[in-house]
Amino acid sequence: MKNAEFQIDEAVRILSNDGIVAIPTETVYGLAASAYSDSGIAEIFRVKGRPSTNPLIVHIDSINKLETVARNIPEKAIQLAEAFWPGPLTLVLEKADSISDRITAGKANVGVRIPDHELTLELLSRLEFPLVAPSANKSNHISPTSPDHVLRSLGENAPFILNGGTCKKGIESTIVGFEGNRPRLYRLGALSKERIEEVIKVRIYHFSDAKKPLSPGMFKKHYSPKTPLITVEDPGMHMQQFKDLKFGVIYFKNGPKHNADFPFEVLSVKGSYEEAAKNVYHALHTMEQLDLDLIIAELLPNEGVGASVNDRLIRASSKE
Ligand code: TXA
Ligand code: MG
């Protein structure tokens, strides 16, 4: 704990001086700067290689601070915040004046959430400003769920990392917006669509792969390893077809029954969608390091958080 306190002191010092720090959250590691620092924000875009048209999520530590970030907040947004924060839900709301156009990429809306990680909540409570943070990986590369992944993805550009261990949810927050006052799903994530619908008592419409995405996270290609990847219903059916390639397989729950002569990962032996989400980016990072010709990934049943894991695997397989 002493070490954690020392690390938080260091993070406070860097962030208060317009610097950037990699922070742990329950979803993935974030690359954070003060929401009020133009140079800190510019540094995030530089280090990630992110186009300036892709907006950043603002992180706060208390629902009382929501009004410093957003205004005209719909009733259903408050219901969701009360039900799920701190947690893996980002709300897209009308931005307050304190939020700059650099954060929102010129949009009138801002994404905001309270992350559920002890160290980052402690850090936020010690700062006089919210933190903006995209995932701490190179744009379009595999998201990081451990300090090692941050180092792998950002290399020599990696900043100071607040070490909070492995992320317990393992995929990004679910994003909900309120265009025309109706709740809409902008990105599938660690909170299932079903759980959101239980709270707001209406069905929620998903903008999947819209031609003109509302949010650049809706672009198809994303979260990709450098190795080509295909998604399949049943990996066993494809082994023969790819026998001349060096391939690895990511299974949902049932790995090979006998010794396999190819590398593989099993996301959740007990068949839990949540456990699969926690492990999926780690599996992709591991496979990427094996110098394979192909990764074959098994799709999960398309329900609950299983649908969110599928979303990431399908984007990882996309070439455009
Ligand atoms: O779990 C998460 O959300 C993580 C952790 C670090 O909090 N953050 C994260 O950030 O995934 P990033 O930048 O990798 O993905 C944020 C997504 C992007 O697709 C962005 O386009 C969308 O959120 N977004 C942010 N602000 C938005 C806005 N005002 N309107 C629509 N989409 C927005
Ligand atoms: Mg990201």
**Unique ligands:** threonylcarbamoyladenylate, magnesium ion
How does the major sheet shape up?
11 strands, mixed
Tell me the strand percentage band.
15-25%
The number of distinct β-strands equals 15
Unreliable stretches covering 5 or more consecutive residues: none
Order of helices and strands: HEEHEHEHEHEHEHEEEHEEEEHEH
What would you call the shape?
A: globular
Average pLDDT value? 94
Q: Which percent range fits the helix content?
A: 25-40%
By oligomeric state, this entry counts as single chain
Distance N to C terminus: 45 Å
Total count of helical runs of at least 4 residues = 10
| Class of secondary structure makeup | alpha/beta
**Rg, Cα atoms, Å:** 19 Å
Short description:
It contains 10 helices and 15 strands.
Overview of the structural elements:
By secondary structure, this protein is an alpha/beta fold. The model has no long low-confidence stretch (mean pLDDT 94). Strands 1, 2, 3, 4, 5, 6, 7, 8, 9, 10 and 11 form an 11-stranded mixed β-sheet that branches. The radius of gyration is 19 Å and the shape is globular. It contains 10 helices and 15 strands. The protein has helices spanning 2-16, 38-48, 66-69, 75-84, 101-104, 118-125, 147-154, 193-200, 273-288, 304-317; strands at 21-23, 30-34, 57-59, 70-71, 89-95, 109-113, 131-132, 160-161, 174-177, 184-187, 205-206, 229-232, 247-251, 264-266, 294-298. The site of magnesium ion has 3 residues, from loops.
What key phrases describe this protein's structure?
320 residues, alpha/beta, 10 helices, 15 strands, globular, binds threonylcarbamoyladenylate
